[in-house]
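Q: Here's a chain of 522 amino acids. Please give me its 3D structure as tokens.
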Amino acid sequence: MKKNFKGLSLMSLVFVLLTNFVYAQTDSTEVASIYGFYSYSSSLMNASSASELSIQGNASHTATGVQLTPATSSQFGGLFINGRTFTSVNGLHVEFEYDMKNGAPLSGTYGDGLSFFLYDGAVTNPVIGAAGAGLGYSYNRAMNTYASLRKAGLTGAYLGIALDEFGNFKSKRFQGDSRVNGISGVTWGQGTSHVTLRGAKGAVINSNGLGDGFTGYPVLVTRTTLSNTGAVGRILQSDRSYLPTSNTLPSLFDLRNNAGEFRKVYLDLIPHFITSTTTDGFDIKVDIQTTQNGTPINVINYYHYKTSVPYSENANPQITDFNTSNTEGTPTDQTLNASVPAFLKLGFAASTGAAYQQHIIRNVKLTLPYAAVTNDDVTSTCKFQPVNIPVFNNDIAYKGPISITTPPTGSSANIDYSTFSFTKNSDTDLTLYRKKVTPQGTWTYNKSTGIVTFNPSSGFTGIATMTYTVKGRTVKDSNGKIIEPYGDTAYRSVPATITVNLKTTGCVYSVISNRMVTQGVK
């Protein structure tokens, strides 16, 4: 797919260089996003100096990512990307890698798991939720004997997605040291290794324990990854009951990998259109890639998270939490206000208990659903020899209206060549860089062909790298209304890396002689 220039004559080499000089495009600028959204990516590896990140509890920065908990008991840690907000009008696409390994089980199961969460972007100093089964998202209430264990849920919580290895995040509990709403009365065929969604923080109900931060966060949907038969999952209904769900996973897997490889989570929040112009919350999709370069497995398939959610607050005390009674009261019917905040922030949390394991996350990427996708390119060349790289061959942009019923299609043919840019200075940089000069060599881009050319510096050997991004196209109807927004800056891809290896063997060079040639005397 990638070609380089081997064995070029001097004249042909000069022609190639002149051609690329003539047709390489100069820098230009693009229009700022009308949605106010800019993509985000961070490896989280040795990211302690990243100003947008803050950690809580036992979390720590390491060379392989952010360790939310070490593999020891009773640990609790969180990571907030609190220095960045993301507009919610167009939804959100999130990718991250995780590792759950080492540790020790309780009754054969490791614990507890990790959560990824979204919260109101207006919150400036978020506080993580309850430890243990709460996974840093939901609340924990308790009677006076265990008052120290009371903990409000995540500040400003909108949505929590748990990779719940132990399986308690989905469960209703009413006992002296732990009281939280959830699913009860189910004999799970596989109660562990569940992907579970909980909703937003609820309203204050009373002053007897169900106060600010101690209501809501209801279970929306849960499914195990370990079975396709039996009681594999439940989904919240409009009558506040939980309907059994089936699984048709193409392959079964434990959320805990334990084999040294990181797994990858893909999360989509797609606006749920009820008319062509109005929406009601999001359709949520969760996929997990269990092997490197493998096909992601769909676990949650477009759950409709509405802006108004009927649920049952079903772990209530008979009178109050603020006594030593452990008598349960009557559940109450509630309706959750899950209006989507104008701006969202996000974070991660994990916890361990008597069952424990190490939890690490890394390589977080945030874009809009159906933003352009660029993938890394690798090629090689020899000293002094330029190389042409058709970078778009493995990239895609999207075309078509945003919909989960008839999703837009992705193809390299949908890429707008004029939107290409080499490395930008910041997420909000609007310059389109078409030429970059580095100590390793000169990078140029031809917007007519979509070809990147790298010309090594004289005498340089080794590895040269450069990043780039791209977008799709915006389409408007006859009235000027945007129906396909993929040319907006908000839909720019996260950067991909071009790597050029300069070879030192197997190279052929033209030999130019400057020896004087004279005619012999006869």
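Q: Can you summarize the key feature?
A: The mean pLDDT is 90.
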